[in-house]
C-alpha cells in the first residue's frame, strides 16, 4: 500500500491560494468560499490546469468536484486523481442553488431566453416552462453570467450561482429555481502534502474518510475476495467505482471511499487483506468527513 507521490516543497508565492476550474462565480468558486474563505481563489481553464497550479506552486490547494447527487461522477476526474501527485486533505458538499440572473433594471417578465451550461438548463425545465423562457447553451454557468453582463440585453438572463450575479453585476430575478432541491456536488480539497494527523472534523466529530485506488490480481473472484476484508472487519465502504485504464477493457482500476483511518485496527486489517488481492493499492487521502455526511448518515438510519 502506497501514498500518492509527493513533490518537493512549492514556492511561497502560491501560499494561501486555492485553485478551481471555471470562471469566477462558478460553483467550484462557491465551494472555495464556503470551505476556504480565508484563501484567494484562483480560476483555471481545465481540471488539469488546477492540478498543475498546485504542483507548480501557483496555488497551495485545489478544489475539485468529483460527483453530483443528480448526475453522478464528474467525467474524467477519477482518471486525473491517481496521477496528480496530490493528496486529498478535506471534502465538502455544496448545494446547487440556481438563480435567474438578469441585467440591472430587468424584470422576470422581460426574460425570453436564459443561458447556461446544458446540465443546469436541464435542472430548471419546470421553471422555464412555466415562464415561457427558452434555453441558450453556454460554455459554463459563470461564463454565461459574464456573457449576459456583456450583452446588457433586458430580455436575456443567465442560470448560475448567486455568487456569479454578485461578481458580474447582475440582479437576481428568481432564486432556487432548480427542479430538484436536494441537488448537491461533492468536492475534494487536495494538497501537495498528505495530512494524517487529524482525527476530528470542524465540529469535533471523529468520523474519518480514506480514499484509494486499486487494481485486483488476475485470479478468479479477485474483487469478491478483496472486498471480503471490509465486511469481516466491519469497515463501511461508501463508494466503489470502476473505470478502464488506457482504453483497455481488461485493465480496470477501482476507486473507493471508506469510513475510518488507516491506523484504526479494523481498517488496517481490511487494507492488509485488500493488498493481498491487488497488484497496486494507492491511498489518495485521509481526511475528516464533512459534517453534512455525518448528519445524512444519521437521517438515513
Automatic annotation (TrEMBL):
Enzyme class: lyase
UniProt keyword list: Amino-acid biosynthesis, Aromatic amino acid biosynthesis, Lyase, Phenylalanine biosynthesis
Matches recorded under InterPro entries: ACT-like_dom_sf, ACT_dom, Chor_mutase/pphenate_deHydtase, Preph_deHydtase, Preph_deHydtase_CS
Domain ACT: 211-288
Catalytic activity entry: prephenate + H(+) = 3-phenylpyruvate + CO2 + H2O
GO function terms (MF aspect): prephenate dehydratase activity
Pfam families hit by this protein: PDT (PF00800)
CDD domains registered for this protein in UniProt: ACT_CM-PDT, PBP2_Ct-PDT_like
Pathway: Amino-acid biosynthesis; L-phenylalanine biosynthesis; phenylpyruvate from prephenate: step 1/1
Superkingdom: Bacteria
Residues covered by the Prephenate dehydratase domain: 17-192
EC number: 4.2.1.51
Protein name from the UniProt record: prephenate dehydratase
